[in-house]
Amino acid sequence: MRRSGTSGRYPPLQKGNLLIDQTLKTCIMTKYFLIALFALGLFACEEASMTAADIPAPVMTAFKTAYPTATDVEWEKEDDGYEVEFDMNGEEMEIKFDAMGKMIDNDLDD
Known about the structure:
The chain has two domains: 13-46; 49-108, Roll (Nuclear Transport Factor 2, Chain: A), CATH 3.10.450. Strand 2 and strand 3 form a beta hairpin. The longest helix is centred in the N-terminal third of the chain and has 27 residues, at 18-44. It has helices spanning 18-44, 57-66; strands at 49-50, 71-78, 81-88, 91-97, 103-108. It is rod-shaped, with a radius of gyration of 29 Å. It is α+β, with helices and mostly antiparallel strands and 110 residues long. The chain has a five-stranded antiparallel beta sheet with strand order 1-2-3-4-5, with helices on one face.
């Protein structure tokens, strides 16, 4: 015996079906949570680029003294100081300075 409005195999989906409502809400909330998490990750990875005017004088003096012919200079502020990426004699270099102009680390990029 069939109920009207059904195909006979499954009961009709009703708007008040609690299990379906909760499952749908969970899926939607999970989707929005993952989108928000992804967006937050993109913004967290953004590095703070700086201009030469933003660099403290001791840091800029130390850099210009050590590398007077550097080209394509890009500065970034980091937790432990300032990082500068530049080209020197056809090679890309990366140097880190503390706020007083002391070199912390230097890497030659391959």
